[in-house]
């Protein structure tokens, strides 16, 4: 009986101890918030906080909001760029990027004229109808598009060379206190082509009432280069989130010039490889021409017999594959 009573007393004591422990923990956790003086203490703490602490707190909150705005803006621009890359450029866009004012219909008309000219040149040179037709197709589809691609690349190189100067003009104008729109107008008059015409189009679109955040990305659509993409991102972030535009554009100008210097260095280092590739690619044609001058009957078998024509076509295909492989090996994207 004494054993049972002692166990009962021990259990009751343990329960009482647990209950008091729970009450103590709850009291320590919830009493400050349930106290009548809680709101007063919070108010006194806020009043006693120094102005520096308040400004620091507000600055941290503003930086967080700005970072979120920048991330959302960059994500939106990245999505637009992915859609633009997936979408194949039209002939009209390629003509505009090459700086040509002709329409796609006029381009196809000139291509047809080129095809006819190539056909008759091959026919008058003594080639068969089959070979002349193939040459005409090359003159219709290959040569005009090759010329358009070369002209477009040339204009893009000119734009890349002049674009840092335009950014420097904008930076100097902003540092003197001019608005960004006036700086763009100055860049449209002080820079050389093709940057001048593109910036004039920017100024005209802004004068029509379009916001700057929508006008600048159109520059990247017309001139699809990484440099214009960087410029559009900097302007869009400054318009939406604020910041020192002159400092951001100054850094952009230095980055653009560093990229240009790196491209020139890579081009200088790869000049020997390009010369070797050009010699290797031109060697079969030079040997064939020299054979035609010395042993005409021997070389003409390749163009008169069906088996010879098949061999020539196969050799041209393999030569084309080799040229593409060598071009991929010596071209570097920066």
TrEMBL record:
Q: Which UniProt keywords apply?
A: Cell membrane, Coiled coil, Membrane, Transmembrane, Transmembrane helix
Return the PANTHER family for the record.
INTEGRAL MEMBRANE PROTEIN-RELATED (PTHR35007), PILUS ASSEMBLY PROTEIN (PTHR35007:SF1)
The residues forming a coiled coil are: 67-94
Q: Which Gene3D superfamilies match?
A: Type II secretion system (T2SS), domain F
Q: What is this protein called?
A: Tight adherence protein B
Decide whether keyword Transferase is in the record: no
A Pfam short name: T2SSF
Compartments reported by the entry: Cell membrane
| All copies of domain Type II secretion system protein GspF, residue ranges | 168-291
Q: Which residues cross the membrane?
A: 6-30, 107-125, 131-148, 275-295, 307-330
């Amino acid at each position: 009986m004494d054993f049972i009573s002692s166990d009962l007393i021990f259990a009751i004591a343990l329960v009482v101890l647990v209950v008091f422990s729970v009450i103590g923990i709850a009291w320590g956790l919830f009493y400050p918030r349930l106290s009548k003086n809680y709101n007063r203490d919070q108010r006194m703490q806020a009043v006693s906080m120094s102005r520096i602490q308040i400004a620091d707190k507000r600055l941290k909150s503003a930086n967080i909001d700005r970072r979120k705005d920048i991330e959302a803006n960059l994500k939106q621009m990245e999505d637009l760029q992915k859609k633009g890359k997936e979408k194949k450029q039209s002939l009209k866009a390629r003509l505009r990027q090459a700086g040509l004012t002709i329409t796609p219909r006029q381009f196809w008309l000139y291509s047809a004229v080129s095809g006819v000219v190539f056909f008759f040149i091959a026919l008058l040179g003594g080639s068969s109808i089959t070979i002349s037709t193939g040459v005409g197709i090359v003159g219709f589809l290959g040569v005009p598009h090759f010329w358009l691609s070369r002209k477009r690349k040339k204009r893009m190189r000119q734009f890349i060379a002049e674009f840092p100067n335009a950014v420097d003009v904008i930076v100097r104008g902003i540092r003197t206190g001019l608005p960004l729109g006036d700086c763009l107008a100055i860049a449209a008059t002080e820079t050389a082509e093709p940057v001048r015409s593109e910036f004039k189009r920017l100024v005209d679109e802004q004068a029509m009432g379009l916001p700057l955040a929508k006008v600048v990305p159109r520059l990247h659509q017309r001139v699809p280069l990484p440099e214009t993409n960087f410029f559009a991102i900097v302007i869009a972030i400054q318009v939406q989130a604020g910041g020192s535009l002159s400092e951001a554009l100054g850094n952009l100008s230095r980055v653009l010039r560093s990229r240009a210097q790196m491209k020139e260095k890579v081009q200088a280092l790869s000049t020997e490889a390009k010369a070797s590739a050009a010699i290797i690619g031109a060697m079969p044609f030079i040997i064939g021409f020299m054979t035609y001058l010395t042993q005409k009957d021997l070389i003409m078998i390749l163009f008169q017999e069906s088996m010879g024509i098949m061999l020539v076509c196969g050799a041209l295909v393999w030569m084309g594959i080799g040229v593409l492989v060598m071009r991929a090996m010596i071209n570097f994207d920066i």
